[in-house]
Amino acid sequence: MVERTQAVIHFKPDGTVIMANGNFLKALGYEAEEVVGKNHSMFVYPSYVKTNDYREFWEKLRAGESFTSQFPRLRKDGRKIWIQATYAPITDEQGNIVRVTKIAMDVTVRRTALESITKGMEALTDGDLSYRVGPCSIPDLANLGNAYNTSVDHLSQMISNLQAVAETIDAVSSQIGSTSDELSRRTETQAATLEQTAAAIEELNSNSRSAVSHAQEVGEEANATRTSAEGSQHLVQDVTDAMKRIEGSSDAIARIISVIDDIAFQTNLLALNAGVEAARAGEAGLGFAVVASEVRSLAGRTADSAREIKGLIEQSAGHVKTGVDLVDRTGTQLTAIFEGVGRISERVKEVAYGLGEQSTTLGEINSAISQLDQVTQRNAAMVVDTADATKGLSEKSAALRQSIGVFRTSNSGGSSSWSDTGSDRGGYSRSA
To answer: What's the mean per-residue pLDDT of the chain?
Structure first.
């Protein structure tokens, strides 16, 4: 039964082939005459034949020790196969080792499949996701290989997606970083501009307050001038009234002088008549004639003085009238000045009020600019935080790309280092 299902070969204790059954010859690709009489070393790698392990292996067999394990062996065409074999020393009745029998089975497919899966796990450990386990005719190993390939396919897709996401994050982070840098520069420029604007507004507000103060001073001076003009107007009115009273007195004096002139004229006539009567009286009227002459002379001088006084009074009246006219015109001008000063005072009040409103508005603008500057400063701080966060994100993205960069994926569906074909197994599927 063993001869029909297993590969069997017999050796002398020195390793010389005595006989090999058909299963063995088929597995190794030889004919019987090509192996009988040859040494076991023809089935082993030449480099292994030269080792102490190989020499000790046969020494132990000759000492009666048996071995069961998987062994790599060379076919005639130079290809390697794996066999699950038992080397058993056979003794005679006296206990002497007369031959060594090896019973083997070809496990190349199983071994190669396991090696392929092991290689896949090693590749996975190294981050190589391009390796794929090939097909296998052993169901359990085929299922294991398929499970490995499916898992690696899924992992490869995940890694590819992660790589794409990492590249996208890196690109977006770079773009956000550039935008943040530009926004930071613009925010700094805006902050500087706002600071300059605030300084200019503050200076303008200070000038406005000074203008308000000056306008108030001008208003006070205008009010004082208006008050003074009012006093001057009253004074002019008093002067006008005095001039009119003087004019009235001059008229009264003129009338009195006219009466005196009339009296002097009448006195002169009476003196003349008295002189005529005294002349008629002769010597008796001589003294009276002298008195009448003196009275006549006095009346003449009185009349002359009255005429002179009248002339002076008329001249004075003319001057007084001229003065009254001048005072009237002065009063009119002072009234105009008073009204003009009043209008100026009102305008100054309006200007002062407007400047006050402007100062208040400038203060509100300055406050708004100050708040805007604070907001800009906070925005600048947020931009810096965003830039730092973006930098951190970029670093994390780079770390992610570096981490997943150890994985190598393939869009070709992977590759396999073995094939479950008859030629690879020497045309023998189960025994060797």
So the answer is: 82
Rounded Cα distance between 401 and 160, Å, is: 11
Claim: this prediction has a pTM higher than 0.70: no
Choose among 77, 98, 71, 94: nearest CA to 16: 98
Q: Which amino acid is residue 371, in one-letter code?
A: Q
Residue found by looking up tokens 């203060």 in the block: 363
Phi, psi of 299 (to 5 degrees): -65, -35
Query: Are 98 and 187 in the same domain?
Result: no
109-113, 162-166, 411-415: least confident range: 411-415
Q: Would 176 be classed as within a structural domain? A: no
Lowest-confidence pick of 119-133, 135-149, 183-197: 183-197
**Which CATH number belongs to the domain containing residue 51 in this structure?**
3.30.450.20
Q: Which of 73, 106, 139 is the last residue of a domain?
A: 106
In a domain, 177, yes or no: no
pLDDT, greater one: 63 or 199: 63
Q: Is the pLDDT of residue 424 over 50?
A: no
Are residues 210 and 97 part of one domain?
no
Total structural domains in the chain? 2
The DSSP symbol for 170 reads H
In a domain, 392, yes or no: yes
DSSP 3-state assignment of 106?
strand
Same domain membership, residue 99 and residue 225: no
CATH number at residue 304: 1.10.287.950
Bridge partners, residue 91, by sequence: 97
Look up the domain containing 53 and give its range. 2-106
The DSSP line for 249-286 is: HHHHHHHHHHHHHHHHHHHHHHHHHHHHHHHHHGGGGH
- Give the pLDDT band of residue 277 (cuts 50, 70, 90): confident
CB distance 240 to 233 below 8 Å: no
Q: In this model, does residue 415 exceed pLDDT 60?
A: no
Strands ordered across the beta sheet of 17-20: 17-20, 7-11, 97-106, 80-91, 67-74
134, amino acid identity = G
Question: Does residue 377 fall inside a structural domain?
Answer: yes
Domain boundary among 76, 106, 136: 106
Q: How far is CA 179 from the centre of its chain?
A: 8
Q: How far apart are CA 249 and CA 246, in angstroms?
A: 5
